[in-house]
């Protein structure tokens, strides 16, 4: 019996030792120091010449990933539109402000549908875009567009208000049929489909102008919301909808302008590693080819603010990505893969686990690699990567 117990304990010690050794080997820094601070980096031609440039965020709760957005805009001269992982109607209201509308920035920031965007960092971003637009002619101003359709209030208001100015009777009848349908109350989609289709048709038959285009997009977003609610695969349908809305938006801007898209890493990476199937990034890579470029983000030490709706909490952990070897000596290091050394490209061509946290991320998830990271090949997923050494939490608006 003693020998059996000793053998069992020895095996357990061996297994633990092997596990620790394997973890240390997998997370050991690799590559040669080559990254430069993002603030000082000059973007390469492969990035700056792209029609669509994506900037991901490894988590939804770190300040740096939201701050990098405005920094990227300042590095580019021809940005015409910025698309966000937010609802069309909500972003239309925010776009009114960044292009010169009335209001106070914190009030405007709370127009975002996701509370995770109710932060001082996003308020600073909106102020920065508004300031840029103040020095541009109307035809060169940067517009914000939401490519998501998870909420209905704002889109419904935009569509019905425009129709009320052009066909008051039709608007009144449709408003009555759609009453009770709002962000907090969904109605059986089968009963809503006919009046929403009628709303789309009524707007399309109206006089063509910028207001009609916006109202039509809002009504179309309502149609997409219904399709999302009836889908048997919500994640895939949402990705298809966001890709469709982005492509339509980009097609509408001049050819000499670029589009930026800001969303979670998992949505933007070209290999769709996080979902095991097609997502927004893989769809854009297929549609635009090399004219879609993606800058991913990563971190080592992390303290973030997570949560759902108004409930927020703190989470912290250390993610020992082996990629940190090539970012040694930087705080917010930037490396473009096309110009990386051969040795570093060999590292980037291997599968690694990259940190990832979504909405509602819990502390227990931070302790389990399979719940706080995604296995992917960086070279397949991104064209460049920003690694933040110590990621700080966002500052939620009170």
TrEMBL record:
InterPro entries per UniProt: Emycin_Estase, Hydrolase/PRTase-associated
Regions crossing the membrane: none
Protein's name in the database: Erythromycin esterase family protein
Organism: Candidatus Avipropionibacterium avicola
Superkingdom, natural source: Bacteria
Gene3D superfamilies tied to this protein: Biosynthetic Protein domain, EreA-like (biosynthetic domain), EreA-like, domain 2
Gene Ontology biological-process annotations: response to antibiotic
Coiled coil: none
PANTHER family linked: ESTERASE, PUTATIVE (AFU_ORTHOLOGUE AFUA_1G05850)-RELATED
């Amino acid at each position: 019996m003693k020998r059996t117990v000793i053998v069992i304990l020895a095996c357990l010690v061996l297994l633990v030792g092997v596990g620790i050794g394997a973890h240390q080997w997998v997370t050991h820094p690799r590559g040669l120091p080559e990254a430069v601070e993002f603030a000082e980096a000059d973007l390469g031609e492969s990035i700056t010449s792209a029609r669509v440039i994506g900037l991901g965020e490894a988590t939804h709760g770190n300040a740096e990933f939201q701050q990098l957005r405005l920094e990227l805009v300042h590095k580019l001269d021809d940005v015409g539109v910025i698309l966000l992982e937010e609802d069309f109607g909500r972003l239309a209201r925010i776009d009114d402000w960044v292009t010169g509308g009335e209001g106070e920035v914190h009030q405007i920031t709370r127009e975002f549908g996701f509370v995770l965007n109710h932060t001082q960092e996003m308020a600073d971003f909106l102020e920065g875009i508004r300031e840029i637009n103040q020095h541009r002619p109307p035809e060169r101003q940067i517009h914000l567009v939401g490519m998501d359709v998870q909420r209905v209030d704002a889109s419904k208001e935009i569509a019905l208000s425009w129709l009320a100015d052009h066909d008051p009777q039709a608007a009144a009848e449709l408003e009555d049929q759609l009453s009770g349908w709002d962000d907090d109350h969904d109605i059986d989609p089968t009963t809503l489909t006919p009046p929403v289709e009628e709303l789309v048709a009524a707007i399309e038959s109206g006089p063509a102008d910028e207001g009609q285009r916006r109202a039509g997009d809002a009504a179309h977003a309502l149609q997409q919301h219904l399709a999302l609610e009836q889908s048997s695969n919500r994640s895939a349908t949402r990705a298809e909808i966001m890709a469709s809305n982005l492509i339509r938006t980009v097609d509408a801007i001049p050819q000499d302008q670029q589009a930026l898209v800001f969303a979670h890493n998992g949505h933007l990476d070209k290999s769709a590693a996080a979902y095991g199937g097609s997502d927004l990034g893989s769809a854009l890579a297929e549609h635009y080819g090399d004219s879609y470029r993606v800058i991913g983000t990563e971190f080592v030490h992390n303290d973030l603010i997570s949560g759902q709706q108004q409930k927020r909490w703190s989470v912290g952990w250390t993610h020992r990505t082996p990629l940190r070897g090539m970012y040694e000596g930087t705080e917010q290091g930037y490396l473009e893969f096309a110009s990386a050394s051969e040795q570093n490209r060999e590292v980037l061509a291997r599968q690694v686990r990259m940190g990832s946290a979504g909405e509602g991320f819990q502390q227990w998830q931070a302790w389990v690699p399979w719940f706080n990271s995604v296995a992917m090949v960086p070279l397949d997923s991104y064209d460049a990567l920003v690694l933040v050494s110590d990621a700080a939490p966002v500052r939620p608006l009170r």
